[in-house]
Structure formats: structure tokens, C-alpha cells
Amino acid sequence: MDNKLITKEIRSAIKDGNVQKVVELIDSNTETLNMETPFGTWLHVAASKGKLDIVQKLVELRSDINKLGGVYGGGVLNEAASSGHIEVVRYLLLREANLDVSEPERNPLFGAISNGHVDIVKLLIKSGIDTDIKYAGESKEDTDALTFAREQGQIEIVKLLENPNECSTTASKTNESNQNQHDVILEHVAKYFGEVKNTISEIVPGSRVAVSIHIIAPSINKNFVTLFTTGMSDEPMDYSEKESGYKYSELLLKLPSNWNGDKDDKKDQNNYWPLAWLRKVAHIPHIYDGWIEEGVILPNGEPPQPLASNTNLSCVMVSRPKETGLDIVQTKQGTVNVYTLIPIYEEERILALEKGHDYLIKIMNDKGVSDVLDLDRINVGK
């Protein structure tokens, strides 16, 4: 298939939202993945069309999230903001897309303003985009975001930009309430594992939640490192009335006592990946509008690939903790469910899909498999 035909096929697949077809056409070809089109990279195209699933897959394939291109010569974030796709904007901010304000044409805030996307403007302001930068040129003279909004007749956006601190004030009150909830969760978990040794916080522009990972060192009675989250339960997961008792959750993951990855060092993937997966799973319900519950298994791609170069474990299973009473925390906001993440093999995932999560847990217990991560443990699915 020649380049013209491939280009046409990929554009059509993106337009149709056909993730599988896009992946098949790119076929692990870096040149095709990073192909420049008049509309930018394929990531620009998917973002401008609001195809979140395809955006996520292209990012997973290592498409450059900050590469310049497209109609406006800006980043992918600018395409999504200009086109009004707030979920794509939120995801790109979560993945640390640049808030490029180098030129007005590249500025996602200006793109959102020009098309009247109020919610995206609000999101970008909360994310810390520079609203005061002024541009000068043939078409613009000392034009900042507020001036531009007035020129465009965007009255609601003008009000937002005139009082940007209102967003911050609301966020401050919310943060205070959330911190009280975090303290309750911290106290609850400490009863089982001990006091927190270290906390790794994050700033996630545009995400509905910011997840902190707390680290509890091994003790005489607990010969493992405990990682657990707060922040996931700041916002409810998507749920029906039937599942209303499951709308708030936090996560924990147990690591061997010799684990030395207690720093947010992304370069050391063999130690960093448990932190990365804990964060990833905590954000999933707030990005995809779903929920996490006991028995959910998340593969590392399809087919699943090893979670790191030092293990063949390739999936993460959500389970109830073994410690009696740990799984429920009562807060003012409601019931928070605590789940343990257990890395598993692909064969074990297949076994759980065929015979159920409880069956897999029973087999693991019978074989002496602990809920503490063991990179080289036996595979009970074989």
C-alpha cells in the first residue's frame, strides 16, 4: 500500500473512531506514526476530531504529544481546545502536554476563546495557563486573553478572565474539604501498616483529581513496603444507583521490603512502574467515566506486555485487601472502598476470565502466592 493510500486509510479510520484499524495501519512503523500531514501528525488529527480512544492509543505508541503542526502550527492540546473536546484536553493535560503560549495561534486558551468553549477556558485557567501574556503584531497589539475575549464577544469568558481567582477560591475550599478526608483515610490505613514515611504528590493539570502516593516502610510485623493513595476519592466514580456504595475508592499496593523506588524517578522504570500503575489506575475512573471494583483486571496493552523489563507480570488485578476491616473507610463524604492491586500474569487473567476472580484468588492462596509483589513468583495459570 503506497503512502497516499495509507494516509487516506488512516484519516478515515480516525474519523470513524476505529482504534484497531488505526493500529493495524500504523503497524509499529515509527515513520508512519510520526508522518506529517497538512493537518499535523495523526495525534493532531485525532485530537481535532475528539477521538479520545485513538489519542490515548497514539500516545501509548509514543507519538510526540508536544510536536508542533496542524492548522494552527501548535501542539495537540491546541487542536483539542480549539475544537472543544474537553475530555481530550483533560487527558492531554494529565499527560503533561505543554501549555504553549509562545504565539497566539498556538495558545490553546485563545483557541478555546475564539470558539466559545467556556468549560475548556475554565479548565485551562485552573491548570495555570498564562492569561496575562500579551501579543503584538500586524493583527494584534498588546492583546491578552481578556482583550481577545472582548473582541470576540465572548461575554461569559470575559467574566471568567476578569475574575480568575473565583476558580482558585472554589478550588481552595474543595481542597480543604478533601484534605480532611485524606486525613481520615491516612489514619485508617496507618492502623494496619504503620505511620507514613514519605508522600509523593502530583500536580495534574486538568484532571478531576490529584493523586498522592503515601509510602509506609516495613516493620517487624509487616515485612513489606505499603503504597497507598489519597485523592482518588475526591470525586465520585461513574456509577448507577445500584452501585452507589462503590462510588469512592482508594488503592494500595504491597512491595517487597528491599524495594528502593520511593522517589518519583521515571527514568528508573524497573522501580518506578508500581508508582506509575497506582496512579494510572487511580485516574482511570475519572478519565474514562467508569469505575474500579473488585475483580477488574487491567492488561498492559493487548496482547499484554510485561509491566517492566525485570518481570513477566503483565496485568494488574483489583482485589479486596486481606486485612479484615481495611477495605472500608467511613468519611463525611461517604463510604470509601480500599482495594489492593495485585500484578498477575496473562495466563492468570485468562483463568480469571474463564472461572472468575474468586477462583483465581483461591488458587493463588492455595499455591502460597502472597499479595506482596514478587517479580519472579510462580504462574498459577499455567
What does this structure look like?
This protein is an alpha+beta fold. The protein contains 15 helices and eight strands. Strands 1, 2, 3, 4, 5, 6, 7 and 8 form an eight-stranded mixed beta sheet that branches. Helix 4 (42-49) packs parallel to helix 6 and helix 10 runs antiparallel to helix 11. The longest helix has 29 residues, at 165-193. The protein is globular, with a radius of gyration of 23 Å. The chain starts with a helix and ends in a 16-residue tail after the last helix. The mean pLDDT is 86.
Structural features:
382 residues, alpha+beta, 8 strands
Distance between the termini: 40 Å
What is the element string, with H for helices and E for strands? HHHHHHHHHHHHEEEEHEEEEHH
Strand-residue proportion: 5-15%
Integer-rounded radius of gyration: 23 Å
Quickly describe the structure.
With 382 residues, this protein is α+β, with helices and mostly antiparallel strands.
Furnish the topology, listing elements before pairings.
Layout lengths: L2 H14 L2 H8 L3 H4 L8 H8 L2 H9 L15 H8 L2 H9 L13 H7 L3 H9 L18 H7 L3 H8 L2 H29 L4 E3 L11 E5 L7 E7 L17 E9 L12 H20 L8 E3 L15 E5 L8 E4 L2 E11 L1 H10 L1 H10 L16
Parallel strand pairs: 4-8
Antiparallel strand pairs: 1-2, 2-3, 3-4, 5-6, 6-8, 7-8
Helix pairs in contact: 1-2, 1-4, 4-5, 4-6, 6-7, 6-8, 8-9, 9-11, 10-11, 14-15
